[in-house]
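Reopening closed ticket. The problem is back. First fold of the pair:
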Amino acid sequence: MPRLTVDGVGTFTVPEGKRLVNALEDECAIDQLHACGGIARCTTCRVTFTAGEPARMTKAERDVLAAKGLAGTPGLRLSCQITCDGDMTVQATSRLAGSGRADAGRRSADAIEPQPEWT
C-alpha cells in the first residue's frame, strides 16, 4: 500500500488507487477543501507535491489549471484528479480552517470525475 506523507502532519498508509482528496480526509484527517465536489472545476483541492508527483495528469486537471492561470506552477496539482498509486509527499495548503467557508464541500466520489482522459 502506498504511503502518503503530509508535510507537518505525518505519514499514512493509504489504499492503492484511492483518490488523493479522499485519502487526505479519511486516512490523514486533513480538512482538505473540495468545493466543487471533486470534479475538477474549482481548484480548491489543490496540493503541492514535494516528492512522488504522478507523471500523468487528466485533461480536466490540465484544462482547469490553465484556465485559472496555475499551469506550470511546480508541484501544484488537484488532489481530486490523482489516485494514490505510489508513495507521495504533499503540502496540504488549501484547507477549510481559515478559509471562511462553511464546509469543505460535498464528498468526492470514489472514482475520478469527470471520466479521466489521461494526458
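Second fold of the pair, where the issue appears:
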Amino acid sequence: MNDLSVYLIDDHKMFVEGLCSLLSEVHGIEVSGFSLNPVEFLEQIEQHQATVYLIDINMPQMSGVEVTAQLKKRYPEAKILALTMYDEYEYVEKMIVAGASGYILKSASIQELTHAIQMVAQGLKYLGSEIQNVLFNRVEKRNTGLDGSGMQQDTRPEVTLTKREIEILVLIAKELTTPQIAERLFISERTVETHRKNIFSKTKAKSIIGLSKFAEKYGYMP
C-alpha cells in the first residue's frame, strides 16, 4: 500500500519544519512538501498535489479559510485538515463551510494528528478532541441560556466575543501591553494585534479606558 502524502501550508517556519520531522517518522505518511506563503502555494498548486493538505488559519498573505475555499474550487476532491491554534467556534464553522473535512489544534499530540490525517484521507470527517468540547459547550450554552460564567445571556452585550477575545479583553483592561499579552497566552504579537483590532471593532470602544468600562459593565473582569 502506498504512503498517503501530506502537504503543509503554514507561515511559521519553525513549526512546519518540526512537524515535517515528526511526520516523516510516522509509518504510512509521506510529507510531500510545505509552503510558507499561501499565495505562492495557490500559484504553483499543480506542483503540490497531495492526499491531505494541512492548512493554518491565520496567515498574513491570505487566511486559511480563503486558501481552503480556493483549493476546493479548483480541486473539489481535495482533502483538507485545518491545523491551527484557534479553538473558537467561529473559525471551526468558517473552515468547514469553506470545505475542510477536519479541524484539529496544534496542541494535539502527534498520535491524534496522525489519526486525523488518516481519517480525512479516507474521505471521513474529523474534529479534534478539544474542538469537540468547544462545540459541545456551545450547544450546551444555547440550550441552557447561560454563558460560560453562569450568567444569563441577557446580561451580556449584543456583540459576540470569542473565548480568546474575552481573555485578551481582560488583559487589555488590566493595561498589559501587546508583548506581555502574547507572552501570557503563548501566542504571537501579530495574533494579539489581530484580536485587539477585532475587539475594538466589536465593542465600538475608542480607547483602553472605554474598553475597561465595557469589560466592567458586562462582568468580564474577574
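Update: turned out to be a display glitch only; the data is intact. The chain has two domains: 4-133, 149-217. The chain has a mean pLDDT of 87. Please close again.
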